[in-house]
Backbone:
């Protein structure tokens, strides 16, 4: 079972396979791993103890950053993720990044960005589309049309509580959609990165 995996100079954390979305482009639909990482399907969700045991096998200072990502939405396990961040901080000043779908407020029924203040250094949020309709069609969140406005609110809260925030879109969007995403990101003073489909 793969809890931690290395891509380039970064140590990735695979906390869960749960996700409230069913993106049409999700890599999980037709592969078991990414970038040469082993099978990222978990046979059970690792306990905090199991996760920290894996961390003990790594010298954190030999990596550029720790990235919460994996084959699911890391913020499904918000409390565990926060405890892992605290462990990491007790060992190293390594940069901590979160890759998220930005729907944690709906998952937990409360504002979650304030809970991440001081725990992570950087958050990358999958924007994926410039408006509610395109987003709902592409990402197919279980929350329906509530999802997109909640994502935007989470992103602006992250600006306030974390500071370093970026949006990503996949490169399957057409030029018009990408331009609209760029405009939206600029209006929120958030960077936008176009990421290739794996
Ligand atoms: S949010 Fe990520 S993990 Fe979830 S379905 Fe979309 S691409 Fe897959």
Residues:
């Amino acid at each position: 079972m793969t809890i931690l995996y290395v891509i380039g100079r970064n140590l990735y954390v695979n906390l869960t396979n749960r996700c409230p979305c069913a993106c049409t482009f999700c890599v999980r639909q037709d592969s078991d791993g990414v970038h040469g990482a082993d099978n990222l399907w978990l046979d059970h969700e690792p306990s905090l103890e199991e996760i920290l045991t894996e961390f003990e096998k790594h010298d954190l200072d030999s990596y550029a950053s720790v990235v919460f990502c994996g084959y699911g939405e890391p913020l499904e396990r918000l409390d565990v993720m926060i405890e892992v961040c605290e462990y990491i901080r007790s060992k190293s000043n390594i940069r901590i990044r979160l890759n998220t779908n930005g729907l944690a407020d709906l998952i937990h029924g409360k504002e979650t960005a304030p809970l991440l203040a001081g725990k992570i250094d950087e958050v990358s949020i999958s924007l994926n589309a410039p408006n509610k309709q395109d987003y709902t069609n592409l990402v197919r969140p279980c929350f329906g049309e509530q999802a997109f406005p909640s994502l935007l609110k989470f992103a602006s809260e992250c600006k306030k509580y974390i500071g370093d925030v970026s949006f990503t879109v996949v490169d399957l969007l057409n030029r018009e959609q990408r331009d609209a995403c760029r405009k939206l990101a600029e209006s929120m003073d958030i960077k936008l990165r176009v990421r290739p489909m794996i």
Summary: The chain has seven helices and seven strands. The longest strand covers residues 164-170. Residues 19, 21-23, 26, 28, 72-73, 101, 126 surround iron/sulfur cluster (CB under 6 Å). The first helix runs from residue 48 to 55.
